[in-house]
Amino acid sequence: MEDLRLKLASLRPPPGQNDLRLTVSTAPQAPVLSLRQLTQVRNLINASLDVIDVTTWTGDARNAEFICGQLQLLFENVQEAKQTLKGSQEITRAWCEDPLDDEIFEPSCPPNIALHWAVVDAALILYVRILEPADGPENPESLTGLGIRDRLAVAFGAPKVQPHEELGERFDYKGRDVRVKEMSRVESQDPSLLAAMAKLSALEHSVAMSRTALDTVMCKELD
User: Fold this and answer.
1) Terminus-to-terminus CA distance in the chain, angstroms?
2) 8 in the Ramachandran plot: left (φ > 0), alpha (ψ -120 to 50) or beta?
3) How many whole angstroms separate alpha carbon 45 and alpha carbon 81?
4) In sequence order, what E strands does the chain have?
5) What DSSP state is assigned to residue 59?
6) Whole-number Å distance between alpha carbons of 161 and 183
7) Each residue of 122-144: pLDDT tens digit?
8) For 77-100, how does the pLDDT look when each residue is reduced to its tens digit (9 = 90+)?
9) How far is Cα 162 from Cα 204, in angstroms, rounded to an integer?
10) Between β-strands 176-189 and 113-120, what pairing exists: parallel, antiparallel or unpaired?
């Protein structure tokens, strides 16, 4: 992974720099940067392979009820893996419940920055949030993005902090009560994730057809 370079209106970069640069630490003791969704997809694929192994080497291949049950398990695992890569609004909003370890990066990520990766429609999305204490002073006009301080800064050429969907909400982040002062979203289409989604969709369709065919032979309605 290349350096992560952050430049936001409310983020003050280090002296002499135009942006804040973070690099994934290569130290042996550094925590691993991993995405919960991708870990879940890997586990579901491994579970699918286990179902196939059991069906092939352990179970009775001539028992229609057994094969029917195994196909259902396989279908559910593949379907859940595909839905996990598709993502959901609940996953993208769970940033405060699953924070990254600050020591993943060099230098350590500042405490007022929350980074959250998510996979949505097989695209990798990075959410960058600039935090502030929820009980700190708040200008009533700031909820519109037009506070006096902001307007003065913009008048002198500073970029304007854009309103966002979490403005005014309070969150419990790493034991602190915070508000999201600024939020930025960066989306990157990943060919590997798109290919994985396509393969899972094809496999889901194939298993569904097999279930339908077997249930037809067994004169059984598909669940």
Assistant:
1) 44
2) beta
3) 7
4) 4-6, 20-24, 105-106, 113-120, 123-133, 170-173, 176-189
5) S
6) 9
7) 899 999 999 999 887 654 444 44
8) 999 999 999 987 666 667 888 888
9) 41
10) unpaired
